Amino acid sequence: MSLAMTVTQYRKARGLSQELLAIRVKHHRSTLAKVESGERPCPPGLEAELVRENWRFALKIADERTGGWISNMLEHCPEMDLHPAALKELMMKELHDLKTALEGLVLAKHIDPDQNRERARELWHEATDVIEVAAILRGVMEEHFNLDMPQLVKEHEMQRREMKR
Q1: What pLDDT is recorded for position 71?
Q2: Which residue spans of the chain are classified as CATH 1.10.260.40?
Q3: Cα(142)–Cα(160) distance, rounded to whole angstroms?
Q4: pTM score, two decimals?
Q5: Residue 152 three-state SS
């Protein structure tokens, strides 16, 4: 599903007019209408506001902009259980699988490069699984606990600069 379709679906599912969503994302209704109809690409400023509106837009935009390197797992697994407890269990499983794959990768010259390449491929897949589930878990936690994503981003960046992360 394209970003245009995602915006339209999101807006209609919440009973929002284009005018009301445009106000919420601080853009003109005409810009939003053109994005929804596919007449124009979504401007970066609107993308940022859509992400602030709902975390699902972040997944969609990241998927489109990175050519799937960061993928929107919700599109591939629409039946995914988004209950926080279910996501916690899935995250624990994915982290365990990643740890196992990481332990299996031996970075030594005497190891067969083809064998290590296969282990590296498995590690890549496990790391991708963790990234995809973590992105969804983060968004669900924001919704479930009514967390302020822009504020959390600022806090996280500050903690990183202060070497606390």
Answers
A1: 87
A2: 1-70
A3: 20
A4: 0.82
A5: helix
Q: Which amino acid is at 113?
A: P
DSSP per position, 64-124:
HHTTTSS--HHHH-TT----HHHHHHHHHHHHHHHHHHHHH----TTS-HHHHHHHHHHHH
C-alpha closest to that of 140 among 68, 81, 79, 98: 81
Cα–Cα distance for residue pair 50/32, rounded to 1 Å: 11
**What architecture does CATH give domain 1-70?**
Orthogonal Bundle (1.10)
Under 8 Å between Cβ of 146 and 69: no
Task: Encode burial over 11-46: b for 16+ CB neighbours within 10 A, e otherwise.
Answer: beeeeeebeebbebbebeeebbebbbeeeeebeeeb
Tokens of 158: 């500050």
Higher pLDDT, 28 or 76: 28
**pLDDT score for 11:** 94
